[in-house]
Amino acid sequence: MEFPKDFRWGAATAAYQIEGAATEAGRGPSIWDTFSRTPGKVFAGHTGDVACDHYHRYPEDVAIMRELGIGTYRFSVAWPRVKPDGTGPVNPRGLDFYDRLTNELLANGIEPMLTLYHWDLPQGLEDRGGWTSRDTSYYFAEYALAVHKRLGDRIKLWTTLNEPWCSAFLGYAAGVFAPGHTDVQEGLSAAHHLLLGHGLATAELRHAGAETIGITLNLAPVVPADPQDPAELDAADRVDAMLNRLFLEPVIKGAYEPYAKQMFSDGVVLDGDEAIIGQPIDMLGVNYYNPNLVTARPGAPENPVYPGSHGVDFRPAPGKTTAMGWPIEPWGLTELLERLHRDYPGLPLIITENGAAFDDVHSDGNVADSDRISYLEEHLRACHEAISRGVDLRGYLVWSLLDNFEWAEGYRKRFGIVHVDFDTQARTPKDSARWYAKVIERNGL
Ligand code: IFM
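A: This is the predicted complex of the input protein with 5-hydroxymethyl-3,4-dihydroxypiperidine.
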């Protein structure tokens, strides 16, 4: 089962999840530093203070990638390293780290793919309203430009935001992620300002000469219990509108759907904003883990992460799940990719995250993770199927290179293809890493 020539094979990580060095070289605090120190918010009080110590151990991590044959490495830049308070002067020592990392990657023949925002908002900006404040969108564009100024000569692949749905709704509406607010209107306002920030940053990057610019969205098919029943279809459609189309439509078509637009309070979406959000992009990053199974249940309360979801219930997975309890449904990836290709033709796609947490089994110094291998293999088959049906899929980046700080779950959920012993920081490629290396070598399964 061969993949197209030039298909990108890679791995992804994010700054707060792996870097550690939380106060080094002038880094300011982020909302995740604050949140992880708030009792009861993160499993066992885990924080990203040390994480995988990637800040110091990046040469070893890059060497592991080279050995595995990884061609593209997606990492994120920590805004609070670059601008410790979120705005104001650039901290060159913070950018020095990404300069070193970029050079190390290029010296090892690995293409860097840079994400500007993977959830670690500077606390100083949160103190001024965070993503509920319009100013944050403009500060984000300033920060993007500062990063480009330093690295733009070497970085060709740019991603503005990672999963703005999570930042907005898990962070501001459900309160399970930083900054931990619980207000649906705040969630909507944050979603809009994230998108506005994406548009403003895209315009700046384009003007500065960035080659390939995209955004990464967490997307999923929303599946009704009974596709023949209009009430079920309506329930699924309302969730789909908030999970998928709230982001896809303005980014790709430059306009919110009327249903989504009427959700925002007056004064949030200003004239001209949607055109800014709809700046042309070159590639859409797709993060897929599982479909979303719903059913209509009159009287069910609104789920704050899907505004307007009154009367919708979320169904448990019927089959196998990962250690996160997420259903394993690879067909959902084929379906999603085909839908994106159909609804938004002409836009190249790349899987910027896909992978799974499992409880790994250790034996004789090896980490046997056959569950993860099956998960990855099935999802790669799903990608191949989509490509054979005409989808313009350019690459696949596994989540994640390393076991890392899995947000509210702390270090107890392991997504890595490389095991990290958090006591010694020893790295051990799991069986899945060796398997993935063969896939890369063969350019297929
Ligand atoms: O660890 C996260 C990542 O930061 C964003 N996408 C989902 C992953 C697994 O939960």
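The longest strand covers residues 111-117. The radius of gyration is 20 Å.
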